[in-house]
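Hallway conversation turned thread

IA: we were arguing at lunch whether anyone had actually written out Actinin alpha 1 end to end. Turns out nobody had. So, for the record, here is the sequence (809 residues) and right after it the structure tokens. Reply here if something looks off.
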Amino acid sequence: GSAGTGRGERTNDYMQPEEDWDRDLLLDPAWEKQQRKTFTAWCNSHLRKAGTQIENIEEDFRDGLKLMLLLEVISGERLAKPERGKMRVHKISNVNKALDFIASKGVKLVSIGAEGKETMVEILRLETKPSWCLLSCFCPSLCLSLAEPAHFALFCLSHSWKDGLGFCALIHRHRPELIDYGKLRKDDPLTNLNTAFDVAEKYLDIPKMLDAEDIVGTARPDEKAIMTYVSSFYHAFSGAQKAETAANRICKVLAVNQENEQLMEDYEKLASDLLEWIRRTIPWLENRAPENTMQAMQQKLEDFRDYRRLHKPPKVQEKCQLEINFNTLQTKLRLSNRPAFMPSEGKMVSDINNAWGGLEQAEKGYEEWLLNEIRRLERLDHLAEKFRQKASIHESWTDGKEAMLQQKDYETATLSEIKALLKKHEAFESDLAAHQDRVEQIAAIAQELNELDYYDSPSVNARCQKICDQWDNLGALTQKRREALERTEKLLETIDQLYLEYAKRAAPFNNWMEGAMEDLQDTFIVHTIEEIQGLTTAHEQFKATLPDADKERQAILGIHNEVSKIVQTYHVNMAGTNPYTTITPQEINGKWEHVRQLVPRRDQALMEEHARQQQNERLRKQFGAQANVIGPWIQTKMEFHLTCRSHEYSNNTAPLSFSCFSLSVPGMPWQLSFLGCDHSGTLGPEEFKACLISLGYDIGNDAQGEAEFARIMSIVDPNRMGVVTFQAFIDFMSRETADTDTADQVMASFKILAGDKNYITVDELRRELPPDQAEYCIARMAPYNGRDAVPGALDYMSFSTALYGESDL
């Protein structure tokens, strides 16, 4: 408080000597231009946050609307609802509301009023003095520290900034990577000023309010313009500090959450791996099925010893470590105000202990059973191995032979392919006879194993019987296949001869039909009766040849029917069509039927054309007689109609009419009630809402604002009584101002990083947070689906509540 008072006194003392100088400069055009430019840029730097800007400070602030909006942006408070009318009284009312708000902040307004005189001096004072009042009220601290490398203090707002080193030092103090201060020269103020202005505009988002040439070329630069520009640095650097604080808070919360999640993942993975190992191991230990070989049983014994010596001890350590990790995690969660960890179903510590007990039970007796089985197999292994070797060799040879002999490949084969299959079958019969001795040896060994009471005699007997049955079946299939191949060979030779004869007779007959169809469909153009009579005579000669052609067609189809009869009688499956021709019986019948249909059509066309030629001859004679009479009458009528249409077109015009309308929308009054007006010690919902707005809470009249107010009311009025007691209000404000890590504070920190938006983007997270924690947020934040969403927007609100167990991630 004392520091603020001292700062205000120093400001008043500093500004007092300038009154006379301001009065002299007020009519200076250069000073006036610099003032307008500086104020306009400063105002736009704040108004663009509200999505608007001004072009002419003299005109755009005259109605008071954008002046009130500027006050709301830089103060963070809501002003009274402005008047929307266009009359002078509405404008004066809006300006007075803005001036009253400035005065309420403790700023004295001397000679400033909305009803000033209409002179340029008074207008300029009306527009510039409120701006300086805003600057002094809401930008009180411009004394930013200038440590190394400057080592100097700023004693005057005009001369101390003229060489540009002050601006460069200010930027270097907070962002040393942007300017190399050691390379700047005091004797080059123009370069220094342009460097500072360009860097501030490009990297700090501070608009260029001043011109380096105006500062260097003026003996005494305007202090108010410089103070306005320097205030922008204060806002830029203070905003960065808030973002850094918010980022640090988020980093701390996320670090704790990441550590807990890593412990949860480690527990889940360790529990899953251990349970999976137990599930795989128990069936292995409970398996008492004997093996057929000594080597397999010995390998089982060696595997069991490796299990007791190598595999089980590490799993015992993992089980102990799992219990330690679970208890440690629960303690960390409880200390960090997080919900208790609940493992996935079936992965509790008790579930793991139950599974481990089943494992211990399965181990008992497994090793003793293994030793007994090995001793028993040693006596019979040698003879059984000999049987298996011979049986395997024979089975390997017979594998696929039955399927080969049962193939019906000859049914779809051509004549040349049948001859090749016969030669291949003869070679197989020779190989079959050579394997007769091995089958007899297998049967002898199986008989010996039965006499020695081999434990697996049933399977040996079954295998031996299978080999003998298969051998007999191979012999029968071999004979059957030879007979089928020879029979098919004879049938295909007969069919081949019929195909050849069919092809020799079908080709010329097909060519005759195609030529006939072309002639019958040929378009004729005649002009006399004699020409049509000649076409009719040729057509009658063609019809006389049709009976002989039909006989030839019947003979060709008879050849094909004979082939079909052979195929149906002997069940021959033809692999393809006639190899000697592509002409099918269906094509022959189709073309023949088409020819038969075209003949009467041709007859009808010729008759119609003959009648038409006779009619044309009569019409030609009648036309010649009447044309000489009606020709002059038609010419006279055409000339009359053309003259009428020309006159009508020249007089065909129509007038156009227009109408206009206007629409006016009257303004609506708005009043704000104050808290506690009924002296009852309680607040109604609307009074409490107004109180929250005055404290800086963003509670609008939209759906989002109503939802936020309903959430706060559920805290201060849990019994839904419709009132807020003084104690409930105090408790709520205590929780809101306490410096603890809560979901609301994390949410507020994210909102700072997001620039007061209801969502945050990937680029903003990566710019403000460390890489690992930025990627952690990106991977877990849900997409934002609000009305103001943009592509790639993320919902930091649900993410913040999920960090404290208030919702699911």
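OS: looked through it. The radius of gyration is 53 Å.
IA: good, adding that to the notes. The chain has 28 helices and four strands.
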